[in-house]
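I can't quite decide. Please look over this sequence plus structure tokens:

:::
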Amino acid sequence: MEKPQIYDENGIPVFTAENAFGKGGKVHIHLTTEYPDFVGKPHKHEFIEIVYIISGSATHKCAGSEYKVGMGDVVVINSNTPHAFCEEKSNDKFLAYDLMFTPDFLDPSMLSTAGFDELCASFLFYSLFPESARNEADLHLSGANYGMFGELFNKIYIEYRAKEKGYTEIVRAYTVELLIKLFRQIDKSSVNRLSSRQKETVNRAVNYLRESFQSHVTLEELAMQVFLSKDYLNKIFRKATGLPVNAFLQKLRIEQAAKMLLTTDLTVDAIAFECGYGDVKAFYTAFKKIMNTTPGSYRKDNSFFSNNN
């Protein structure tokens, strides 16, 4: 991916398809660590961008608004939308997948369009995309399920890097699957039916869980932090994230464990303890339920990812 050569009327750099994909290209994926100069720098692009946060946290400044993002979040940025992910100081470095593509990569009839909303209205997705989410500069799905999204990004990344025969078709298929599952999750979460104040409260609760997931956090304690009753908090939390508080907390712990399996040499038992599990058996049960595999198998099967980053 090359540095942008053109700027808009406000001096914001604009990435063209040729900058990002090369001549004739229509898709690209990278990790933020591979292009550190672009993190925290306002820019926009003439194509669709989908970001999945692997670790760390950042403030996403987008089209005049801003919000925090962290591990497990998915953000879809529409074309020609100025934005920047500004990394926040934490023990974990901000790391994300950045998938970019033109609409006609998925639907050839979209050759003359660039926007996400237009792609969603195409024949390929028109029956899936929630009407209430149309015409947004960006879409933010907080605390997405790793087994649903993170693994797909990982597959796309591996295929794109290997560039074996037929890789473009496989990347296209995975991207279609990613969008369909994203639309399903948006529809279930009903984020757009929450008030701004409710969304802000849920974001505060999510941030608290991310900072405290290694300790014993109860629903009662979390409710006290955001000054709500536990039943009401659980209700709006589930509406925003698609999960009740306890399930979301468990997912955070398992996602952190998955990351540690790939980036440390700690034993599985030690990782379980580090992620807030006093009972190793309970950790194994939770890990297999969320990741559809055992911790040992996950570490072994994803050795390509850990050895190449």
